Amino acid sequence: MEMVDKTLLQMYRGGIFDHIGGGFSRYSTDNYFLAPHFEKMLYDNALLILAYAKAYQLSHNKLYLDIAERTANYVLNEMTSPDGGFYSAQDADSEGIEGKYYLFEPAEIINVLGQENGQEFCNYYDITEKGNFEGKSIPNLLRTTDFTANYHALLPKLYDYRKKRYHLHLDDKILTSWNGLMIAAMCHLYRVTQNVKYINAAEQAQSFIENNLYEDNSLFVSWRDNRRSGRGFLDDYANEIFALLSLYESTFDKTYLSHAKTLCDMCISLFFDKNASGFFLNGSENEALIMRPKETYDGAMPSGNSIMAYNLLRISHYYEIASYDSHAGQQLQFMITEAAHYPSGYAMFLCTLLDYVELPTKVTIVLKDKTDLEKLKGKAPLSTIVKILEEATSEYPLINGQTTYYVCKGRSCQPATNTSPF
Questions:
Q1: Which of 48, 55, 131, 146 has a Cα at 20 to 30 A from 185?
Q2: pLDDT (0 to 100) of residue 292
Q3: Nearest residue to 383 via CA among 3, 53, 59, 70
Q4: Residues 211-233, buried b or exposed e (16+ Cβ, 10 A)?
Q5: What pLDDT is stored for residue 403 in this prediction?
Q6: CB of 162 within 8 A of CB of 103?
Q7: What is the mean pLDDT of residues 57-77?
Q8: The pTM is what?
Q9: Total Cβ atoms within 10 A of residue 261
Q10: 346 contacts: CB under 8 Å, gap ≥ 6
């Protein structure tokens, strides 16, 4: 956790985080996270929301929650289409100069905020006459450890000024794969904040995919100018299933879980290597290639094979069907073999493997009344497996005639209770 804290904190302190408008740039060009490549990618911000939300759940450090929310709000403000889909990226350049949109001089800040507020803001965010990037300044917090919200009230003025100052080009493609990651991120943030705007955004984006990028249980790659392109690849299926599982775990709407299962079956049919395990990148609906690669390495984005290991393991918990247990086991073994030579390049898969070795908490809820479910939505901690039974069974009876909770942690199950564990 010490390494996690240091990394997440340093990324926030540096200029790779947009302290004016929120969100993260693509990567740092130095050792301190000061000077980024200024392009902002949807998938980076999705993965970072997931990371900061999880860090907040574990540490209760409200700074992490603030970073996650400012990143999500950036996406909602600047990267979301009127129909709810998430756009792909914002360019690094303005007027042909990389980073011009994000750079400031002290005189600009003082002109917008006034002498006193402006000078204090410059001092806090390291905006100087000398500059820290090609003669101008990237706002950053590398020179302070006092992370205060005192200056947040000043940010809207600078945000509006910056938007009017230069134009920033938007890549308005809507990609199924990247949208899947952002839907999951919004779901996870909803679960740690209980703020319904995040789950609303996730559900609207999912509706966009279903209306424009989904047909006859098949996915398509992208949407732009009212046209979709290409049959989906492994990453499109894997990340969309990941999104649907996240939506179910946030809302307990079984439609999402059923949809995830249907797409998982389709993914196995299209991409799974029945002879040697693992999933091919391209499926039987895609253009035939000379080779059919299996991408397993978790680089800037998790590989489709890593995400599918996660998906299969979760679905096997929910449905407890032998075929899913078998596919999950095969995929885990395949990825263990792949990851053995370079484990640190398989971060997403290692998270899944940890859930396999150290079983996540599993909660079975037997409802007395369906309205009881409304009180529980979004309350389950991240990683928890929650099964909903609308009627009691011999294995899971109602206790005291009330909604009943059966909780298993690891391989140990607790006595049934009427008290919610969330």
A1: 146
A2: 84
A3: 53
A4: ebbbeeebbbbbbeeeebeebbb
A5: 96
A6: no
A7: 97
A8: 0.96
A9: 19
A10: 296, 297, 298, 306, 335, 338, 339
